[in-house]
Amino acid sequence: MQPALRLDKATHPHKALTSRISACRRHRDWQLALHWLHEAESAAIRPNTIAYNAAISVCEGAGEWTRAISLFSLAVEEADVVTYNATVCACGRSAEWQRALELLRLAQEQLQPDVVTLNSTLLALEKAAEWSCALLLLAEMACEAVAGDLISYNTSISACEKAAQWEMALILLCQAVDSRQEIDIITYSAVISACEKCAKWEMALALLADVQSSFMEVDIITYCAAISACEKAGRWTTALDLLQESQRTLKPSIVAANAAISACGMAAEWQQALLQLRATGHYSLNPDVITYAAAMSALEKASQWQRTLALLQEIGRRSAKVNIICVNSAMSACGNAGRWQLAIHLLTEVRTRLMQPDVVTYDAAISACANGTEWERAIALLRVLPKAHLQLTTIAFNAAITACERESQWMSALQLLCRADELVEVSVVTFSSTISACEQSGQWIMALHLLDRMEQRCVHANLITFASAISACEKALRWPQALALLSAALRRRLRPNTIAYSSALSACSQAGHWRRALVLLLEMQECTAPADVSTMSSAINACEMCSQLLQTVVLLGELPKVALHLQN
User: Is 553 exposed, middle or buried (0-12, 13-18, 19+ CB in 10 A)?
Assistant: First the structure.
């Protein structure tokens, strides 16, 4: 039951009402604030603008922007700039930027908005990453004699940061300096963070150096942004240098350590990742699940499955909650190392412990089966995804098709390709793996059909695709088609490798076309595709079949040189 206000006995009822409503802000008790307004109306006391402003402010603090809008509509006839500011701020905190802009436009018609109105609107735009609107508004308000302050610039820069617009963030920084704003570490941190999102590590470091030269106190947030910029650019050594620098000048932070370990992980520097993980103990830091996930990611890339599993067990011993990201890394590491049984075991463990496997979990499991040539199991796992209400992915289809390819299951690969074409965006890998499956089964017509289908779907074939198709033609003794494919690859400015040339040359050799075989050998030299023993043997065989004794002798003389070159 709500307490009674008894405004009828108060000497200054409006002042008492405002005081009671304002007291609700501390605990964000918007229901009580609305109750006081209702009590006032019941006592025939009409709340004034100040009381409404206080109630809107309580709703803003509680994140109740719709309530704030409702109260604003009641107070709009007598609304002052504070009313507008509080309502716009309520919309801003909830990222309701369209509403905030509408209120700003209304304020421009009714009264003179101030810098608080501007900043509250910019806050809404920042939370929604509407950077272009923020920049336009900042410029527009300056023309209306409402010059932005440091908060305006910081909020606009943050909007650019959220949208990864590092160049615009940098321009705003320069504008803030030109307008003689007292730039603070928040400004620089936001710009550095924008650079981080675009992997502009050199600019991030230049800004960090600028901060240090201006004797501004660098905080850990700034260091973390700079370290993350290095991580995204693969500059793991620079990331470690920054981590050590931060540890010398600031209290060590697990967030900074995580960013540095992640940088090592991105570069597959698993030894350094483990070293930094162990170093957290030296600085009395407690590694969290993010720390372990970053280290395990590095191990996964290097197929260090045993160490990955050891870290997974270590997380459990530390009583930290194992998240699905860590399990995914462990599964992927096992799969990369050909330990598909362990990957499937981990998937079973996830289900047993009532963890929620995600798409990446199943992608890792299917990829593990592909590496272990367990094509039937891979297809079975693929079928589980829709049942588990998870989105089928291109990665999952590619892995399942690869599993079929490695076991020459071209029909199954083809069926998966058709299904993938309906459900996901097929890639060159999807087609290449299917063509390779056809090649291994001698299905050259289907391989060529798939190559045509790729062109129809605007999926650009690569060297692997052409090499598989040429090999399919070679196995079927279809030398004209093999040569046509080789020419098609050259027309697309692809540089056929030794494998592609060897297949085409072998097709010519088996058909006894020794002249064409020799022409291909010359083309290989021009394309800097080194001939190997197999290529030379095919050319020799073609000459031998056609009794071209002189050419055979010459090629036999070249054979030891080729073998020696390959050994070196």
Answer: exposed
